[in-house]
Amino acid sequence: MDNGQSQQNAPRKRRYLSGEKKYLVLEEVKFNPAKKVEILRREGLFRTDILKYDAIAKAAGIKALGEMRPGKKRPLDVPLEQYEALKREHGAQEKALAALTVEFMVLKKKVNGE
User: Fold this and answer.
1) Does residue 102 lie within any of the structural domains?
2) Of 43, 82, 93, 102, which is most buried with the most CB atoms under 10 A?
3) Could you give the CA distance from residue 85 to residue 69 in angstroms, rounded to a whole number?
């Protein structure tokens, strides 16, 4: 057997494409429909693969658009630890503000001669 024969009969390694690569191939096929066969051959894909990718992308797009709502954005959930820390910080700032207000009132009375 020569080298060409053994390569033809050897099982081909299955290629695994990342989601990003699949999307890029899908976009390339959509923008270059005349070169579809060439792109599929280059990537080792079939027409049904592209149809499957297109259906999945369409479903994901519809789902993402369906979740979008006009108006105010929903506030993000804050972890309990972060909430408690912010609550303590707010309390400390309130106390500092109250102390500064009292001090300001005392100074104001001294300046005005009351």
Assistant:
1) yes
2) 43
3) 31
